[in-house]
Amino acid sequence: MNKSLKAVLLSALVYPGAGHFFLKKYAMCIALVSVFSVPLFLLISEIVGKANIVVKQIENGEIPLNIAAISESLSSIISDTYAQDLNIKIYVIAAAWLIGILDSYRVSKLKT
After folding, report:
1. How many CB atoms lie within 10 A of CB 105?
2. Alpha helices in 14-66, H assignment, sequence order
3. Could you tell me the pTM of the whole model?
């Protein structure tokens, strides 16, 4: 397996920036890891926060323990601005991943 394929696979399948780390491009590696990790952390923490609200409502007996009621409660918690904020984070995550893949291929081809 050649170096460019390894770098692309590392960036695509392991973590964005892993291919740059393999290619010893540490500054770009740190940039990609940061741009990917921060929105991912914020996305997961917001989702867990909303899930905890629903769990507390279930524990307090405000919501019956069935799928339809839980789904309706989650839908009422998620507003349009919240959904838009989530979409922006998802787009940033996807863009960072794609840039990591493409740039690791570009850098590996420049080195050869």
Report:
1. 17
2. 18-22, 26-59
3. 0.82
Q: How many CB atoms lie within 10 A of CB 3?
A: 14
pLDDT in tens, 9-31: 999 999 999 999 999 999 999 99
Residue in this structure with the two tokens 């009422």, named with its chain if needed: 76
Are 7 and 104 in contact, with CB atoms under 8 Å apart? yes
Q: For residues 25 and 34, what is the distance between their CA atoms, to the nearest angstrom? A: 14
Q: Can you give the pLDDT at residue 51?
A: 87
Distance (Å, rounded) from C-alpha 77 to C-alpha 66? 17
Within 10 angstroms of residue 60's Cβ, the number of other Cβ atoms is 8
Tokens at 45, concatenated: 């923490």
What is the per-residue pLDDT across 74-86, written as a single tens digit (0 to 9) for each? Answer: 888 777 667 888 8
Torsion angle defined by CA atoms of residues 81, 94, 46 and 69, in that order, rounded to the nearest 10 degrees: 70
